[in-house]
Amino acid sequence: MTISNAIPQRQNEEGQLRLMRARQWTFKVATRFLTAQMLLTVAVPIVGSIWTLFVPALRPHLAALTLAILVLDTLYLDRRYKSLVKRAAKISEQFDCTVLELPWNNFVAGEKVEAEDTGAAARAWAKHENDDELVNWYPVAAGQMPISLGRILCQRTNLRYDSSLRQAFGSVILALVTLVLGGLVVAGLAEDLSLTAWVLTLAPATPLLSWAGREYYRQRDTIEQLDELKAKATSFGNEALAGTCSEADSLARSRAFQDAIYLRRATSPLVVPFLYRFKRQALEGEMEDAAADFLKYYENSPDNQAQA
Predict the structure, then answer these.
(1) Closest by Cα among 266, 224, 268, 211 to 35
(2) Which of 74, 66, 68 is nearest to 47 (CA)?
(3) Which of 81, 156, 204, 223 yields a CA-CA distance of 20 to 30 A from 71?
(4) Can you give the residue range of the structural domain that contains 297?
C-alpha cells in the first residue's frame, strides 16, 4: 500500500506559485547584477586589452578604467547582488516550509519577506513570464510516499540539481581565463612587447582575474558543501526507507537539512542564466530518474510491503 501526501498539489496552489514568481523575479534581478559584473570585469578588460595592442597610447587610460571598475564592483555591485540572493533565498525558504510542512526557523532565516515585497516581485514576474517553469517544481513522485520521505526526496533534489550546475560553471570560468590570458600572451609575443608594455597590457585583465578567482573558489566551496550534504541526505534517506527513523526524528533532521539548504542559498553565488537554460532539460531528466528510483525503493521497502 502506497501512502501519499499533498506535496504535488500544495506546490501548485496559487499562494505557493506567487512565492515562486517572487523568487524567480528576485533571482532574475540578482542575475542582472551578476551580468553587469561580468560585462565590466570580463568583457571590458578583454576588449580593452586587445584594443591597446593596436593603440598603445590608451594603455594608461584603460588601466585607470579597470581600477575604477574594481572599486565599483567591490563597493556596490557585489553588495547589491548578495542582498538580492539572500532575499530570494528567504522566499525559497517560505515556499519550502509550506510545501514540505516544515516549521519556520526564525533563528536561522530571520523574519520572512513581507507580503508587499513578494507581491510586487510576483507581479513583475507575471508581466514578463508565465508559470510554465514553476509548476511541479518538485517531482510528482514525492507525493506517492509518506511526507517524511517526500521531504527527503525534495531536499536531495535541491542539492543534486545545484551541484551539477555549479560544476559546469566552474569549468566555464577556467576555460574563459585560460582563453583570455593565453590570447594576451600570444599577442604580446607576436608584438614583441617590452616589460613596461607587458605590464600595461596585462593590467586591464586584473578585474577579470579578481572576478574569476573569486567566483571559481566560491563555486568550488559551494560544491564541496553540497556534496557533503548530499551524502548525508542519501544516508538519511536510506535510514528512513529502512524504517529506523521515527516521525519526530525525521522531522527534526529534515529541519536541520533545510537550515543547511537555506544558508547555502543565501550565501552562495548564482550561475549564469544561459548555463541553467542549457543544462535544464538534462538536469530535470536526472531529477525524475532519481525520484523514480527513490519511489521504487520505498514501494519495495519492508514497512510498505508489510502495510500492503
Answers:
(1) 211
(2) 66
(3) 223
(4) 7-307
Q: Which of 14, 27, 22 minimizes the C-alpha distance to 121?
A: 22
In a domain, 136, yes or no: yes
Q: What is the C-alpha to C-alpha distance for residues 99 and 12, in angstroms, rounded to an integer? A: 9
Per residue in 150-176, pLDDT (tens digit) is 998 898 888 777 777 777 777 777 777
Q: What type of residue is 155? A: Q
Q: How far apart are CA 19 and CA 27, in angstroms?
A: 12
Q: 283, 159 in Cβ contact below 8 A? A: no
Residue identified by cell 548530499 is 230
* Rounded-to-integer distance, Cα 49 and Cα 283, Å: 37
Q: Percent of the chain at pLDDT above 70?
A: 81
Residue 182: inside a domain, yes or no? Answer: yes
Helices (H), the chain: 7-10, 14-38, 44-54, 59-72, 78-99, 106-109, 115-128, 147-191, 195-202, 206-241, 247-267, 273-299, 302-307
Contact 150, 143 (CB under 8 A): yes
How many residues would you count in the chain? 308
Torsion sign (Cα): 259, 262, 266, 270? positive
On whether residue 106 sits in a domain, the answer given is yes
As for how many domains the chain has, the answer is 1
Separation between Cα atoms, residue 113 and residue 94, nearest integer Å: 8
Tens digit of each residue's pLDDT (9 = 90 or more) over 266-305: 988 777 666 666 666 666 666 777 777 887 878 776 555 5
Indicate the burial class of 14 (C-beta count within 10 angstroms; 0-12, 13-18, 19 or more).
exposed
Q: What is the dihedral of CA 110, 115, 121, 122, to 10 degrees?
A: 120
pTM of the model: 0.78
Any domain includes 1:
no
